[in-house]
Amino acid sequence: AQSVTQLGSHVSVSEGALVLLRCNYSSSVPPYLFWYVQYPNQGLQLLLKYTSAATLVKGINGFEAEFKKSETSFHLTKPSAHMSDAAEYFCASESNFGNEKLTFGTGTRLTIIP
Amino acid sequence: KAGVTQTPRYLIKTRGQQVTLSCSPISGHRSVSWYQQTPGQGLQFLFEYFSETQRNKGNFPGRFSGRQFSNSRSEMNVSTLELGDSALYLCASSLGDSLTEAFFGQGTRLTVV
After folding, report:
1. Cα angle value A75/A63/B42 (rounded, 5°)
2. Is residue B14 within 8 Å of B81, Cβ to Cβ?
């Protein structure tokens, strides 16, 4: 069974600093991978997705993620944090058989320090 | 275009009661998935409906059920509510083809007392 692991349930960075949120996947076959963001009392919004077309994926709000098969990782980065980035971030995977079931990591709460 | 609409946004129920939550997907989307989000268990997949048929199911007891109507609107029902059913229930809609983006609603916050 596939799964995703997010390292660090809480991450704090200063405004303007690099954001790095870690995600590792566990699957015998590289799955499709996603990053979602959730603001308080809101649903999930897709930031970006990896579908095997390109290993470096650019998303919305300046975020990007790089798929590294050798490290089974899909870490999310943003060069310069903004106060509005404070939210919870979820890494998710979907089997590449397209069964429409997303498996989520446990989430990382990002705090931005002014 | 309108997003995914979940109603109601908030709900308080008593143990033993049953509850029905509603999800209206984006127009043209045929797949609706339901997820339960709790602080302890995180986001867990409940089930997915596509063209009125349950296509996928998570590991939840039979008290959790759902259905989808011909207009793709979906309902999920929880019977004999338990305190542990308190959660944010999220609905996601998509076209239903392989790897199409899932759009989430704002969720229904269910509190069981």
Report:
1. 55
2. yes
Asked if B97 and A44 come within 8 Å (Cβ–Cβ), the reply is no
Distance of CA A104 to the CA centre of its chain: 10
The SS3 call for residue A62 is helix
Cα–Cα distances in angstroms (integers) from residue A98 to residues A17, A101, A102, in the given order: 37, 8, 10
CA atoms within 13 A on the CB side of A60: 9
pLDDT, tens digit, for every residue of B8-54?
999 999 999 999 999 999 999 999 999 999 998 899 999 999 999 99
Calculate what percentage of chain B has a pLDDT beyond 90: 83
Average the pLDDT over A7-36 and give the result: 91
Q: What are phi and psi of B57, to 5 degrees?
A: -140, 140
Residue A19 C-alpha, separation from nearest chain B C-alpha, in angstroms: 22
Residues 6+ apart with CB under 8 A from B54: B47, B48, B66
Contact between chains at B55 and A42 (C-beta distance less than 8 A): no
pLDDT band at A100 (very low <50, low <70, confident <90, very high): low
| A107 contacts A89 by C-beta, under 8 angstroms | yes
